[in-house]
Amino acid sequence: MFNNELFVNVVLMLLCYAYIILIIIVSGEMSNALNISRKFSRKFLHIMIGNLPFIIPFFTIHVFPVLVAAPFILITFFSSPYTPFKSFRKLKGLTDITEQGHHLGLVFYAVSYTFLALFFASKPYVVAAGILPMAYGDASASIIGEKYGKRKYRIFADKSLEGSVTMFIASFLSFTIGLSFFSMLYAFSIFDKILSSLVVAIIAAIAEGVSPLGFDNLSVPFFCTLTFLLLGGGN
Fold first, then answer.
1. What does the pLDDT look like over 95-148, one tens digit per residue?
2. Whole domain around residue 23: which residue ranges?
3. Number of domains, the chain
4. Which residues make beta-bridge pairs with 160?
């Protein structure tokens, strides 16, 4: 029985690896194939990797969600301009995306996911509280803020009011939809979590607004998860 369970978890982990690698390849080729900006391809990667919490409930051995994310801390770091191993620069798709963005942004993304999976794999909706606002909220805020942001402000980095409002809306919608999904698998009602989702979205917008570029991949997951837990979302 255990061997079958282990086999299923290993297969699911390998499928997650395949999904991540496919998204990295697609993101790296998008700008050339579809004539879109590197920024948009980075945000596509951001969003699509952010869907991984929806897979966590199907793991029955909780170490495996950690093993999905942890290797990419090193992979993304070695693909960044800070790598001590220049041979890793041959990972061209990931390297191009990393260089065009905030150099350690993807590393911070992997760190956040690994940390949340390590402590909350048994409650994937808690992982989602940190990951979905980072994935959908931050990506949407960046795209809308750059294109339509007119009301600028600066704390540690240049941001726009339009981007922050988009961060709030996208975080609230993505997390609420995520909670709706998880409510079908776990013993809670989505209606009991609406207020928590609203407050998490507010905190996400604030955290993104005050974070230096790239560091929102750490601050947004941390503060959103902490807020959700303090509001009883982990019960």
1. 555 545 566 778 888 999 999 999 999 999 999 999 999 999 988 988 888 788
2. 2-230
3. 1
4. 152
